[in-house]
User: What shape does this take?
Amino acid sequence: QVQLVESGGGLVQAGGSLRLSCAASGRTVSRYARGWFRQAPGKEREFVAAITWSGGSTRYADSVEDRFTISRENAKKTVFLQMNSLRPEDTAVYYCAADRVYPLPRTSGFWGQGTQVTVSS
Assistant: This one.
């Protein structure tokens, strides 16, 4: 069983930055595609970013392109999401995800518990 635990969320002013981390455990997680989804109040879960298990390819939602950067450290089973130039519309619960399919499907096999990101205006 793969377990994912997010951290790094919090309250930040518009224009600020946060770095989310997703620590993973499990025998096979190092070979899984990894990434992030988010869900804002009253909205459906939406894709944010994904990275291949090797870290060689990345994909971003249009809304975060050029502002967010996903990276992966396979040796530590950890994935990061560097979020810069944050906007109030980025406010959401951010979920780490893992699956053998890339880019990550909405029905990814494994999910973290979520971490709240709140951007004030």
Summary: The mean pLDDT is 94. The chain has no helices and eleven strands. The longest strand covers residues 18-25.
